[in-house]
Amino acid sequence: MRVSEDQLRAWMTGGLDGDAVAHAALLKALVPILRAFYRRRLSDSGEIEDLVQETLIAVHTRRASYDRDRPFTAWLFSVARYKMIDSFRRERRHCNIEGLDEIFGTEGFEEASNARVDVDRLLDGLPAKQAGAIRKTRLDGLSTAEAADAAGISESDVKISVHRGLKALAARIRGEGR
Question: What's a BP term from Gene Ontology annotated to this protein (predicted)?
């Protein structure tokens, strides 16, 4: 299940206002988001899990630094990016300074986060099966077979759902839908 920016923000602000249930729901929802973030950048599954845990701790301990007027995911991914940089420093990994923007996505990061929110809103307007197939194959990078296994449907069903969903999105963007 994919969680929207609005829901994440609501849980974060609820947690800031003292709602322990909202805060717990936020931390639980962040696990798959952070895994996907680190998986796109790293290959060592142990390192990924360590960074997910470190980031969850940082979200908890630094939650007061969140600006309620800004997108939550932009703040979250900034925390995650800094945790990854700290990990590289601890391990004394060397990287080409000129390539850091590419590795960490610092340039245009907020715009990319806002674009992700826009994509999520578009996908939320589709039937769940189509939106899920598009998210898994086009955004999360799963193969058709992996997406089919995750959803418990056939590969051809995934392909059809992606095709129909993208067709509906294109029509909506052109102003032909809703």
Answer: DNA-templated transcription initiation
C-alpha span between 110 and 108 (Å, rounded):
6
Q: What was the pLDDT predicted at 113?
A: 57
Closest CA to 3 of 23, 32, 35, 41: 32
Mind giving me the DSSP string for the chain? -PPPHHHHHHHHHHHHTT-HHHHHHHHHHHHHHHHHHHHTT---HHHHHHHHHHHHHHHHHTGGG--TTS-HHHHHHHHHHHHHHHHHHHTT----GGGHHHHH--TTHHHHHHHHHHHHHHHHTS-HHHHHHHIIIIIS---HHHHHHHHTS-HHHHHHHHHHHHHHHHHHHTT---
- The token pair at 53 is 């845990």
Report, as ranges of residue numbers, the positions in the chain whose pLDDT lies below 70: 1, 92-117, 176-178
Nearest C-alpha neighbor of 25 from the set 35, 13, 40: 13
Longest dimension (CA), the chain: 53
How many C-beta atoms surround the C-beta of residue 146 within 10 A?
A: 15
Single-letter code of the amino acid located at 11: W
Other residues' Cβ atoms within 10 Å of the Cβ of residue 78: 16
